[in-house]
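ok posting inputs for the zinc ion job
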Amino acid sequence: MVSKICESTMKKTPDMEKLIDTALHDRDCERRRAALDQLEDEETLLYIAEHDAVAYVRFAAVEKIGKEETLIWFLLHEKFNGIREQAVKKLEDQKTLCYLALHDTYYAVRRIAVEKIDDEKILIQVALSDEDKDCRAAAAKKIKDQKTLLYLMQHDTSSLIRFIAAKKVDDEETLKKAALHDEDEDIRYAAVRGLKDEKTLIHLALHDASDFVRQAAVEKIDNRDALFEAVLYDKDINVRMAAVEKLDDEELLIYITLNDMSIDVRRAAAQKLREESLVKTVLSKGDAQARRIAIEEITDEKTVREIGIKDSDPSVRIAAIHRISDADCLEKVLRFDCHNDCRKAALRRLVELSDRLTEKQKESIIRIAEQDAEALFKEAELCPECGGEVSEYEDTHYRMIPVGYDEYEYEPFIADCGKYCEECGERYSSRSDLDERIEEFKRMMME
Ligand SMILES: [Zn+2]
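and the output
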C-alpha cells in the first residue's frame, strides 16, 4: 500500500521543487541523473555539474545544458580523467582543443584533442615534446612540416613514430641517405617504405643486413634479375617468399618448388604454378616433399587418386589419400595398401566422409578396421593428415599440493602426450588405449 502511494506521487511530480530535490539529493545516482534530464533550470544544472559526487552525473548536467562554453568550463575544471575523455570528444572549440592538446594531464584527452586540431604549430609542439607516444603519433600523422618530420624520423625514441614520420618525409635524398646509412634498422625499414629510387631499393633488397629491410625492399622492386637473385640466394625465408610472390616465371617457380630448403617457400611457389606443371614436372621430378605440396594444389581427382594408390613414397600417398573423396577408392586403399599409415589415413578420411556412406559401407569398413586394428590404431609414424614427419609432444601442467596451512607447492604432471605433425601441426594424443580408440572410431563412424 505504501509503495503504491509513493509510485503515484512520483508519477505526479511535475512539481519542480520535488524534481530539483531528487536531482540534488537522491542517494541513487541513476535517479539523480534521470531527474536532471527533466530539469531546465541552468543554475541548478551548473551546480550539479560542479558538485555531484558522481562523474557521469556531472557530465550529464553539462550535456543537458548543451552549451559549448559550459563544456569548455567543464573540461578545464573536471578532475576525473575518464569523463574528460568523453567530454573532449564533443568539443569543437579549436582554441580550447589546442590548450588541452598541450596541457591536459591525461594522455587520452590530449590525444583526442590532437586528433581534432589543425594548428600546425601546436601539432609540432606535441610531436616534439609530449611524453606519451600515442599523442606524439597522433600529431605526427597530421604534421606536414618536412623539417619536423625529418627530425622525428631520426630522433624519436619510438619506432612507430619514426615510421610514421619516415612515411611522410618526401625528400628522396633524405630517405635514400637514411635507408642506406642509418644504423637503426627501424629507420632503414621506414625509409625503404617511402623510397622510390629503384636502384637504391635493389641494392637494399640484396645487401641490407636486416631481414625485414630486405623483405620490404623486395616487396617494392620489379627488377627480374634482382628478384631472381633474392629468391635463389637470400638466407631468409620471408625474403624468398616475398620474391616468390612477385614472380611468375614458370620455370623459376618450378625450380623453387623442387629445390628450396623451406617447405613454406616451396609451397608458395607451387601455389603459383599451373596445374599442368605440377602434374607433369613436380610430380615426376620432385622429391617426396615437393610431390606432397603438389598434391595439395592439384584439383584433378583422377590424378589425386592415382597418386594415392601408386606413388612409391607412403608420405605422398597419405597427402593424396587425404584429398580423395571417393569411398570405393578409399576402401581399396584401406584393404590393400602395404603401409600401415596409409591404411590409417584412408580410415581417417572415411570417418570424415562417414555421413556420405551407406550403412552397408560403414559395416564393411568397421569389419576391416577390427580385423586390422593392431596396425590401424597404433601410433602413426607419418601424419595421417599430410604425410609429414611426426615428433613426440608432452604437455606439462601444474597442480597445487597443500603442504601446510594455506601453503601450497606446485607439482608438475603430464596432462597429455602423444605425437604431433611437424608440417601441419596436427596432434595425435596417445592418452587412450587401443580399445578406447577403436570404440571412439566406431562411435564417430556411426554418428
Ligand atoms: Zn601433418
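notes: The two ends are 61 Å apart (CA to CA). The pocket of zinc ion is lined by residues 383, 385-386, 388, 421, 423-424, 426 (CB under 6 Å).
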